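User: Run a structure prediction on this.
Assistant: Running it now.
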Amino acid sequence: MLPCLNKKLFGIDCLGCGLQRSIALLFKGEFIAAFQLYPAIYPLLVLLLFIGSNFFLKFKYDWIVKVGLAIITALTMIVSYLIKMKIIFN
């Protein structure tokens, strides 16, 4: 696995820490463990699948769906990061 440059330089996790290991767990079929390690994995996968399918299929309000999925993914990443860093919900 690639090391986290942010963690190596500053000693704290970044918003993406755990993504590689979570993807590896998905390939092994350990879906719950992947979610526990990186909760934003599923919203991120839905966003990427929608963007990928949008290259081939055109939807009427695709930009609204993309923005909505991006907001949900970003909020999931931020909230899970704050919980992991024990900033909220000590």
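Helices lie at 5-10, 19-28, 31-37, 41-54, 62-84.
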